[in-house]
Design brief:
Distance between the termini: 29 Å
Helix content: 40-55%
Radius of gyration: 24 Å
CATH topology: Amino acid/polyamine transporter I
Largest sheet: 2 strands, antiparallel
CATH class: Mainly Alpha
Structural class: mainly alpha
């Protein structure tokens, strides 16, 4: 995944002005007009996840309205026009197609949503139910998923509301936070300046941790298989190999091009889960004697259950970026829209996996249900390999390079922007697959 531009310059009014090229220079050719009404030009972008903004000014796409000769404001690569008047019936969704390149269909978005949420966390659901017990596990699974989904609906609704107020088709998560705080209670208005940077920082840190876990999971899974059937290489060597694959996957420019990998990943998930369920139901599913409805220490166990489930189902960077890149974003938050359908399916699958896995193995349930599978058969090996590929195909979805890129871009690093951008990308990917080497497994 790469970006089309690098926000290097601002004109005298604070708005960026780029020539009509893929990678802009410091030239101020084709500046934004200032003839009584400022014609605000929006961007043409490949993929805009949470934390990024409108990253390239296109001289071919005009805004749906005009401002009253007021300057635009710029924060970390995002152009927010100072709108003088916005039509009361302005609908951001109607103009989203003007700035999103390679937008995804509803089905493609659903595939991305399921693959972005179905991963290694699902394999840990049996031990989550072991910590919480069957009763608390089932109730908690439904309740926590509902609260998380409601929070995401509120976030997306707030972004849409701010976009409508400003008269822009799309606004990033951080800038939406800034304008929401500005329009909120006066005693919180002082947070409007640090708020967007805090949002970017926490999102980047959250996704960094996820990506490091992904690298560790892929490397350890492939090493176990390789040691038994192929080469005996050190874990660090597999980290390097995994890092090289991550760099290749990270070059996918938009979600539309990522759809074939998402589809392949979903088939691998189905195949891997099918093999896991085959061993769980082999010989009949008789509840293990250790299985309990409520554990001896319910509060401590539920805290562990909560952390496992939230890590598994809550992928805020993926969820918001998917809505930002849809052809019909209005279908995302409908009662029977893409998001609700995906979350219901994900919640049911997580709850079912945790319940049957815990009933099968009881207190012997391990951190990943694949570790409970028999080692003398080839099928468990295929399960590990399938999920390793699933995580690899998932990698471009939460890759937090965008956050770091826009965090550093306001420093005016200089030309050439393309090479600076690539350097930051490769450096960040190197950091991601280097850190897990020092995390105990």
């Amino acid at each position: 995944m790469t970006l089309n531009s690098f926000p290097e310059d601002q004109d005298e009014r604070g708005a960026k002005s780029f020539p009509n090229e893929s990678y802009p220079s410091n030239s101020n050719e084709n500046p934004m007009p200032n003839d009584g009404a400022e014609n605000v030009n929006h961007t043409s972008m490949d993929m805009t996840p949470v934390g990024t903004g409108l990253d390239q000014i296109s001289n071919n796409t005009s805004a749906p309205h005009q401002t009253q000769n007021k300057p635009g404001k710029w924060r970390i690569g995002t152009l927010i026009p100072a709108v003088g008047s916005v039509p009361h019936d302005y609908e951001p969704y109607d103009h989203r197609g003007d700035i999103v390149k390679g937008a995804t269909t509803n089905f493609e978005t659903l595939i991305h949503l399921m693959k972005g949420s179905l991963g290694t966390g699902m394999l840990a659901m049996p031990i989550a139910f072991k910590n919480a017990g069957i009763l608390d596990g089932l109730i908690g699974c439904v309740l926590i998923s509902f609260i998380a989904s409601y929070g995401m609906h509120q976030l997306l609704r707030m972004q849409h509301h701010v976009s409508k107020q400003l008269g822009v088709p799309l606004i990033d998560y951080a800038d939406a936070m800034k304008h929401a705080v500005t329009g909120g209670p006066k005693y919180l208005s002082w947070l409007s300046k640090p708020a967007p940077y805090l949002v970017d920082f926490f999102l980047c840190s959250f996704q960094l941790g996820i990506c490091c876990v992904y690298v560790s999971f892929i490397s350890n899974s492939v090493k176990q298989i390789s040691d038994d059937y192929w080469l005996h290489l050190s874990l660090r060597t597999w980290f390097i190999i995994t890092g090289a694959l991550v760099l290749v996957m990270g070059q996918i420019r938009n979600l539309h091009h990522l759809s074939p990998f998402s589809t392949a990943g979903d088939f691998l998930i189905v195949g891997g889960l099918g093999m896991v369920f085959y061993y769980i139901f082999q010989g009949g599913l008789t509840p293990h004697p250790d299985v309990v409805l409520i554990p001896e220490h319910p509060f401590k166990g539920f805290a562990l259950f909560f952390g496992t489930l939230m890590t598994a189902v809550q992928s805020i960077g993926v969820i918001v970026s998917l809505e930002n890149n849809m052809k019909t974003p209005a279908d995302y938050r409908k009662p029977f829209g893409v998001f609700n359908i995906g979350m219901v399916f994900i919640t049911c699958l997580y709850g079912f996996t945790g319940l049957v896995g815990y009933c099968k193995y009881g207190n012997a349930t391990q951190g990943s249900v694949t570790l409970n599978l028999p080692k003398e058969s080839i099928l468990p090996v295929l399960v590990k390999l399938a999920f390793a590929f699933v995580i690899l195909f998932t990698y471009p979805l939460p890759l937090p390079f965008f956050f770091c890129f826009f965090f550093f871009s306001f420093l005016s690093i200089g030309k050439p922007a393309f090479f600076v951008k690539k350097f930051l990308f490769f450096y960040y990917c190197f950091f991601i697959f280097y850190c897990p080497q020092y995390v105990p497994t």
